[in-house]
Write a structure and sequence with these properties.
This is UDP-glucose 6-dehydrogenase. This protein is of the alpha/beta class. The protein has 20 helices and 14 strands. 44% of the residues lie in helices and 14% in strands. The strands form 2 sheets. It has an 8-stranded mixed β-sheet with strand order 3-2-1-4-5-6-7-8, sandwiched between helices. Strands 11-10-9-12-13-14 form a 6-stranded parallel β-sheet. The model has no long low-confidence stretch (mean pLDDT 96). The structure holds 1,4-dihydronicotinamide adenine dinucleotide (NAI) and uridine-5'-diphosphate-glucuronic acid.
């Protein structure tokens, strides 16, 4: 059992702290946000993440999980300090290391004995070298500090599951002793540990996210061809995925990826490349392809319903993916902006993310409390997020609530056969449209 501090209690820090306490370590999570810390002390997670409250409460009650806003208190007597603060995108696309730098100085000023610092945050190659220098230069006491890069691969919405069932744990260390310590700490997870040097570990994180983003971007481009060539992207992806070299994951075509990581990490990788005079053309085109993809359903709606001015468009789902309240870089933002710009009224519903959404979405969007309310009086609906509430609902809801249901499904939630048995005019990603007989006749 080790004594561990985790700095930053966002999606990564909180889940890391909770998981490390669950395997027996004594963990103190530090955050500067007093509101968050108050909630967490009461066993309430400040983020929506399935299963998190339960594991959190279990470990608080067992006396292994603590929360504080005080760096002084948080670092005292710790063997290890994990850094899990944000590294958001700057205006120019580079990663903003401000929060990391502050934490490095806080660590230097407050540690009382030898410590290993572990960087969980996603940081450009070379950052760990810079951070350890910053810590050593600012030390208040004569102690030894080592650094380990331990990038995180969890997905939002399944973060707790991923923490206990990841494919690998990457430990990048230039000091064998520090690497051994972090490997030992993680042993109870039973997840394979891959040891490498610090810089390679930093690159593994960016390369993994950029690769997954490329895979999504690729199938999205294929879906746009399928639409034009009357092929079915779901069948194409399935057929491709049967090849073990390709694999069937991350081949779901849709309205582009969003979230706090793929967009910022692809931009940062382009900038990392530029910093060493390399033009990373492939990732640059993934970034621009994704921006275009986020608007494919809006473009389709413009064509199909004859312009958007004065039309009411319902949005089902706002979060960038289901099972999260995270709105960062959600396609819903670009979609709403474009709809409003074209003169449409936008009525939006999300089962969980609506409160958060208001901070990210353009002004002028009306938020409603149910899918029925969003659909009633709408001229058309765009499905943005594939929440189970939408995927599993009876299609008759569209017919009951809308006078003439026109559905633009950005997540391919429904089978074409099933839709064909209804009166819904239906457009999805990379599949043929379904237009009921009476609409065709009227046209
Ligand atoms: N969100 C995700 O799914 C994943 C994120 N990552 C990476 O992990 C890092 C963290 O991401 P998130 O958890 O999404 O961030 P977040 O933005 O949700 O949380 C960051 C937290 O750090 C706190 N904080 C900021 N400065 C602090 C300081 N000086 N002392 C203590 N607390 C401080 C903030 O109050 C906030 O609660 C980023 O580098 C991100 O790229 C990596 C894998 C998955
Ligand atoms: O670095 C990170 O923050 C994390 O980024 C992603 O996780 P996350 O963004 O939480 O969610 P994903 O499930 O990867 O989905 C990202 C976006 O891609 C979209 N997506 C995903 C898969 C797919 O086949 N098609 C597709 O359009 C989703 O709808 C969503 O908008 C990675 O999957 C994690 O491994 C990584 O740790």
């Amino acid at each position: 059992m080790k004594k561990i501090a985790v700095v930053g209690t966002g999606y990564v820090g909180l889940v890391t702290g909770v998981a490390l306490s669950d395997i027996g370590h004594n963990v103190t999570c530090i955050d500067i946000d007093h509101e968050k810390v108050k909630k967490m002390r009461d066993g309430e997670s400040p983020i929506y993440e399935p299963g998190l409250d339960e594991v959190m409460t279990r470990n608080i009650n067992a006396g292994r999980l603590h929360f504080t806003t005080s760096h002084e208190e948080g670092f005292v007597g710790k063997d290890v300090a994990y850094i899990a603060v944000g590294t958001p995108e700057r205006e120019d696309g580079t990663a903003d290391l401000r929060f990391i730098e502050t934490v490095a100085k806080d660590i230097a000023q407050n540690i009382t004995e030898d410590i290993t610092v572990v960087t969980k945050s996603t940081v450009p190659v070379g950052t760990n070298d810079y951070i350890i220098g910053l810590i050593r230069d600012n030390l208040a006491k004569d102690v030894t500090v080592n650094i380990v890069s331990n990038p995180e691969f969890l997905r939002e919405g399944s973060a707790v599951y991923d923490a206990f069932n990841g494919d690998r744990i990457v430990v990048g260390a230039d000091s064998a002793e520090a690497g051994d310590l972090i490997e030992e700490i993680n042993k109870p997870f039973g997840i394979p540990v891959y040891r490498t040097d610090v810089r390679s570990a930093e690159m593994i994180k960016y390369a993994s996210n950029a690769f997954l983003a490329t895979k999504i971007g690729f199938i999205n481009e294929i879906s746009n061809l399928c639409s034009r060539l009357d092929a079915n992207v779901e069948d194409v992806a399935f057929g491709m995925g049967l090849d073990g070299r390709i694999g069937n994951q991350f081949l779901k075509a849709g309205i582009g990826y969003g979230g706090s990581c793929f967009p910022k990490d692809t931009s940062a990788l382009v900038k990392i490349a530029e910093s060493v005079d390399y033009d990373f053309e492939l990732v640059k085109s993934v970034v621009s392809s994704n921006k275009r993809q986020q608007l494919v359903m809006v473009d389709k709606a413009k064509d199909v319903i004859g312009g958007l001015k004065g039309k009411t468009i319902a949005l089902l789902g706002l979060a960038f993916k289901p099972n999260t309240d995270d709105m960062r870089e959600s396609p819903a933002i670009a979609i709403s902006r474009e709809l409003l710009l074209a003169g449409a009224d936008v009525k939006a519903y999300d089962p969980i993310a609506a409160v958060n959404a208001a901070h990210f979405m353009p002004d002028g969007v009306e938020y409603v409390g149910s899918k029925e309310e969003a659909l009633s009086q709408a001229d058309a609906v765009i499905i943005v997020t594939d929440w189970a509430e939408f995927k599993d609902m009876e299609l008759s809801v569209f017919e009951t609530e809308m006078a003439a249901p026109v559905v633009f499904d950005g997540r391919n939630c429904y089978g074409l056969e099933e839709v064909s048995r209804t009166n819904i005019e239906y457009y999805s990603i990379g599949r043929r449209p379904v237009v009921p007989e009476k609409v065709r006749v009227a046209e």
